[in-house]
Specification:
- This protein is of the alpha+beta class.
- The chain folds into 2 domains: 2-52, no CATH class; 65-135.
- Helix content is 42%, strand content 17%.
- A 3-stranded antiparallel β-sheet has the order 2-1-3, with helices on one face. Strands 4-5 form a two-stranded antiparallel ribbon.
- Strand 1 (2-7) and strand 2 form a beta hairpin.
- It is rod-shaped and about 70 Å long.
Length: 139
């Protein structure tokens, strides 16, 4: 019988034990108290009572970071490059201009991304879509 252990609600380890009371006892004693059944396994979710499959993987994940060339190409392709450049150029914050011109990579979590998105009227979903598009631009 397969048993698992969970950390933060996710099965992160599994092991095989004899399918008996003794096997169950050994599984619990060695830190594998969750019966996984036929299909459960590493990555499955455990809420303390119920085992469930993990959510499907996002087929188009948002990159954590892209190069400035990739990002600016995505802005251009979306028809936003000129507006973004104008917003940066007109910003009262010199650091935004320095970052726009000098950053080696643009991280999705950068506050400058948020500042430019606000100026362009973009919500988080639109910014995520731009990062996805940027990630598809060749480096």
């Amino acid at each position: 019988m397969r048993y698992g252990r969970a950390s933060d609600g996710i099965i992160d380890g599994a092991a095989l034990f004899e399918d008996s009371a003794e096997g169950r006892e050994l599984a619990v004693e060695t830190g594998f108290p969750i019966a996984l059944g036929e299909t459960g396994g590493i990555g499955w979710l455990w809420d303390g009572k119920t085992l469930s499959p993990p959510p499907p993987l996002d087929p188009h994940p948002v990159p954590d970071a892209v190069t400035p060339a990739q990002a600016k190409t995505a802005l251009y392709n979306a028809g936003l490059y000129d507006r973004a450049e104008a917003a940066v150029g007109n910003s009262q914050y010199a650091l935004i201009r320095i970052w726009w011109n000098s950053a080696q990579e643009w991280k999705r979590s950068d506050p400058y991304i948020y500042a430019i998105a606000v100026e362009l009227g973009l919500d988080d979903d639109a910014v995520d879509d731009l990062f996805r598009a940027a990630g598809r631009v060749a480096r």
